[in-house]
Amino acid sequence: MIDTHTLTDRFGRVHTSVRISVTDRCNLRCAYCMPAKGMKFLPRAEVLDFEDLAFAAKVLASLGVKSVRISGGEPLVRKDLPEFVRMLREAGTTKVAMTTNALLLKRHAAELKDAGLDRLNISLDSLDPRRFEKITRNGHLQKAWEGLEEAIAVGFSPIKINTLVLKGFNEDEIERWVELVQERELIVRFMELMPIGEDDLKDVGSYFDLTALRKELTAKHGLVPATDTHVGNGPAKYWKAPGWKGALGFITPMSQSYCATCSRLRLTCTGKLRACLAYDEDVDLGPALRARDEDAARGLILKALAEKKAGHPWNEGVRTIMGMSEIGG
Ligand code: SAM
Ligand code: SF4
C-alpha cells in the first residue's frame, strides 16, 4: 500500500527529495557522460519553462518532497537560473541545492546566493590541469577553481566537490585530495562510475572500487565517521580524522549500494519523472505540468512511485540507456 501523504513506496522508503534537470545541454563533454562528437540534444521546444518545472516542485512539495537539487546538463548554461531558485522557494521548497561544473560560477555565485540557493556541489575530477582537460574534453581547471573560490567568498559553505575516481586515470590523486580537506573546509566526495548512457572512456580509465579505498584510508589516516559534518539528503557517508577542517565522502552505488534508503525522485527538463536512476522507466508529467493540472500530476507521481523497484540491476550487467546529462545527474 502506498502512503500518499508522505511519498512512501512499497518498500517503506519515504521520498523527500527531487533532482530537477533544467537542461540536457552542457559546456563540457566529460568522457563518462557524453560522446566526444555527435551528442544529440533534446529539441528546445520540448524543454519545459521554469514556470512548468516550478509547478512540478509545488505539487511535489505538497506530497512532502521539499528538497530540490537543480542539475542538468550544466544548469548554469540556462539563462536566469537565479529566478528559478526564487520560483522554487515560492513553490514551497525548503532546501534548494545545485550540482555544477563551476565553469560559469564565478559570474553567477553572488546572484545565486541572493536568490536563496542553499548548497552547492561542484564536479571536479582532477587537480591536474591536463587531466582535467582530458576528462572534460577542453575544460579549464583554473576557471572551475575560480568559480569554487568565488562561491566560498559569497558564503556557500561547506562546498562539496564530487570527484569521479577512475582506475588508470586519477586514483593516484587521492592523497592530494586528503591534503586539501585537512587544510580547508571542503567536503570531497569520491564517486564510483555507474554504467549509464554512452561513455567514451576507452583511453581514459575504468571503474574503481571505493569501499576498498575507504578501508585503506581509514587504516592509514585513522578516519572516523564525521558526525559534525552536514550530511544532506544524499547517499554519501562522511569521514575525517581529528584536526581536519574538511571531510571525505564515499559514494558507492556499485560496491555498497544504498538503494534500501533511497529517498529521491528525478525530473528531466522535458517533464519525465523517474523514480529510479537505473531503470529506463518514467512517467511523462509534461502535459499535466503545462496544463497546471495538479490532480493529474499528483496521480502520475504516485504511479511512478508505485512502480519503483527495490534496487538497481547494474551489478547484473545491465546498463542504463538514458544518459546522466538528460536524467539530471
Ligand atoms: N554538469 C553538472 C556537473 O557536472 O556537475 C551537473 C550534471 S552532471 C550529469 C552530475 C553528476 O553526474 C556529475 O558529478 C558527474 O560526475 C556525474 N556523472 C555523470 N555520468 C556519470 C557516470 N556514468 N557515473 C557516475 N557519475 C556520473
Ligand atoms: Fe556536462 Fe556534467 Fe556531463 Fe560533464 S558530467 S558533460 S559537466 S553534464
TrEMBL record:
Its EC number(s): 4.1.99.22
Name of the gene: moaA
Subunit-structure text: Monomer and homodimer.
Binding site for GTP: R19, R69, T99, K160, R264, L265, R266
Co-factor: note: Binds 2 [4Fe-4S] clusters. Binds 1 [4Fe-4S] cluster coordinated with 3 cysteines and an exchangeable S-adenosyl-L-methionine and 1 [4Fe-4S] cluster coordinated with 3 cysteines and the GTP-derived substrate.
Binding-site list for [4Fe-4S] cluster 1: C26, C30, C33
PANTHER family for this protein: MOLYBDENUM COFACTOR BIOSYNTHESIS PROTEIN 1, MOLYBDOPTERIN COFACTOR SYNTHESIS PROTEIN A
Stretches assigned to the Radical SAM core domain: 10-235
The keyword Ribosomal protein is annotated on this UniProt entry: no
Keywords from the named record: 4Fe-4S, GTP-binding, Iron, Iron-sulfur, Lyase, Metal-binding, Molybdenum cofactor biosynthesis, Nucleotide-binding, S-adenosyl-L-methionine
GO molecular function, one term: 4 iron, 4 sulfur cluster binding
Cofactor(s) the protein requires to work: [4Fe-4S] cluster
Catalytic activity: GTP + AH2 + S-adenosyl-L-methionine = (8S)-3',8-cyclo-7,8-dihydroguanosine 5'-triphosphate + 5'-deoxyadenosine + L-methionine + A + H(+)
Gene source species: Microvenator marinus
Role played: Catalyzes the cyclization of GTP to (8S)-3',8-cyclo-7,8-dihydroguanosine 5'-triphosphate.
Entry protein name: GTP 3',8-cyclase
UniProt-listed NCBIfam families: moaA (TIGR02666), PRK00164.2-1 (NF001199)
Residues noted as binding S-adenosyl-L-methionine in the record, renumbered to the chain: Y32, G73, S123, M194
Gene3D superfamilies: Aldolase class I
Binding sites annotated in the UniProt record for [4Fe-4S] cluster 2: C259, C262, C276
Listed pathway(s): Cofactor biosynthesis; molybdopterin biosynthesis
One Gene Ontology biological process: Mo-molybdopterin cofactor biosynthetic process
Domain of life, source organism: Bacteria
Family: Belongs to the radical SAM superfamily. MoaA family.
